[in-house]
Structures are given as structure tokens and as C-alpha cells.
Amino acid sequence: MSNIIMNPNYFKLGFVNVKSNFFLNKIQNNKTKQNSAKWLANINEPIFNFKTQSRRKIFQILTAGSTLLTPFLSAQSKEGKKKKWEQIEIPVDTVLFDLDFVKDDPKHGWLVGSKGTFLETLDAGKTWIPRTFANLDPDEELTYRFENISFFQNDGWVIGKPAILLHTKDGGKSWLRVPVSPKLPGEPILITALGPDTAEMTTSAGAIYVTNNGGRNWKAQVKETIDSTLNRTISSGVSGASYFTGSIIGVIRDKNGKYLAISSRGNFFLTWQPGQEFWIPRARDTSRRIQSMGFIENDLEKGLWMSTRGGGLSFTNSEPDFDSINNFDFSSSDIKTGGYGILDVNFKNKEELWAACGGGILYSSLDGGKSWKKDDEDKVVGSLYKIKFFDSKLGFVLGSNGVLLRYVD
User: Which of 3, 24, 113, 395 sits CB 3.0–4.6 Å from 96 for a disulfide?
Assistant: First the structure.
């Protein structure tokens, strides 16, 4: 696979003044709670004078008191059961895809999504401000679907569809639009900031490139695309090789640069690590199709997790060997989602992890995935797609319809 040289003509993008973005703000309806019952008593009449009050009236008084106390007791009960996640109001109702924080300023972050969604926070995600590019036509900007964002210190990158690549060197104060070569195999689907002007980009065809000069030149890390690997596998004459067909829908990278890719049909997955010339296709170890996959604590050395259609979830028993062509050994986890598919799993630490399901449901485990508990308090309307933890006290869940949950420690 040849290296790519991008067009040196860069476009500088600035933001529209936030004060002019009033049309993006949501109107919040403040709902007022009404008392469920009201009871009036004659203050001149002694309530518990057994000589003057009938049994029926005493019973009515006690019932009314019970009715008045119920809301207060219920509120105290909810306060005692503290929520782990709080829903954050944001000024859009689009699908949210990714967020990241400027490493030099942990409270400064960016959130991206469909229909040109580009939001900024300066208070660790408690509030979000919409940003609009001054150099892009508003109608044109709405057509972009920003899917991935990554920062290393103040150096950040964003990719989206139609193919667009943005780069910042100052934490997002200004962005450069880096031209995407038409010779690029596939569309950019994942980018990871690795240092000043340095990033690693992966495409939908399985091509992996690295730049060290802000995107002007890209060096290929894989000799052939996934399509070429699959075609070679099928034509090799190996029994069952036709099993490895189709395209990929997702690419996941661990902190050390090792990759997973999932086939669009969910019937197999592929792996790659630095130094290998091509991707290695691998069969799933279950009859159910793969829904999603990832690295335990973002590190291959700690293992892999795999979710399957219908709510299945499993973990590898040991560190997978990406150099071996043998199948990986997975063990099922005891999670009961009622048939909802598990779209993402993420670890807060070694013992505590969370799973996001269709239907806006979250599940948590405090023993490394051996047992699970449904989080009824934090159910939302919509699907939850991605869970990200940045440290033990800062985490987010992203979903459809502008759903954004923030971890509360």
C-alpha cells in the first residue's frame, strides 16, 4: 500500500460568535410539582380530643397525615439512593458520536455528532456551548457527520463524513481543514492523536496511516487493505475460507496501537498490531453474530470483550495472541438484558464496568463482569451507543436524540 501525499492547500476555520447562536438553544420547560393532596383542619378544634371526635373523623385525620407524609418519605428514599449518572441538557437533539478533552486543560472538552454537531465545554462537561464554523456555509455544515475526535495535549483531530479532516494546535481555538486525498482507500473512520502534529488514521478499508507533519504526508502501516486480505484468504483454497467475506463496520484501537475490526455481517472479526503486514481474519466462537467488541481497560494485555446479538457478552480468559492464527478463548458473562443488544462496554477500573444497551438501559458490574445489575434509575429515551471514562471521576455515555449522561461520583 503506497504512502499518501496530501494537497498542501489548507483551509483555516474560525468559529462564529457564540452570542449569535441563540437559535441553537433549547427552551427548557420548568415543570412544577403539585402536592398530591391537601387537607385543611380547623385550628380552633383540638385534633386528638377523643371526647369530642368520632372514630371516623380520627381515621380521616390519620389518613390525611399519611397522604401528606408520602411525598416527603419518597423524596428521602430517592436521596438515599444516589444516581450514578446525570443527564446533561445540551442545545441539540442529534446523534452524539464522540467526545474528548484537551489534555493540557482537563476541564476543556469537545463533543461531536451528526448534522454538524460541534460543542465545547469549559467545566468538565457540565454545560456545553454550540460552535459553528464561520468559513463553512450553514447548509453545508449541517451535512457533515463528525464521528471521531482525539487530543494529545493541545493537539487535536476530528474526522467525519462526507470525508473531512480537521486539525487544531491550540486546543480548539482555531481549526485547519486538512485536504483528504481522493486516492485514499476507503473513508477515514478513526483517528488517534499521538503527539504534536502526529496522528494515526484508519480507513473503512482497513488502511492505517501515520503523519508526523500535521497531515501533509501520511505513511502506510499496512501493505494491503482488508478487502485484499479477504480476497487472498478466499482464493487460498483453504476449507471454509469463504466464511471470511464482507466489509467492516467498526475499528477499535487500544492504547498501544493494536486494532480490532468487526465485519458488517457480524460473522467474523480481524486483528492487527504494529509490525504485521496485513490484517488477520478470525472466526467468532459462538453461533450468534457479533454486535460489538473492545479491549478490557483499553489494553490488549488485559484481554478482549465481545457482545453478540440478543444481549450476549463474553470476555477472553487470557491475553490474546495477535501473532497466532488460532481462535481466542472467550467465556460468557452472566448478564440478562431481556434481548437488548449490548452496544458498548467500558471499564471505570479493574472491577467496575458499565454496559450500554438498546432501549436506553445501562448495566453495571462491580466484580469485573461476573455479575451485573440493571441501572433502572438512569434509563433514558433512546439508544446509548458509547461509554467513555477519562478517570475515576469523569465519564460520559453518548446516545441518540441528544442524550448525554455524565458520571457522578
Answer: 113
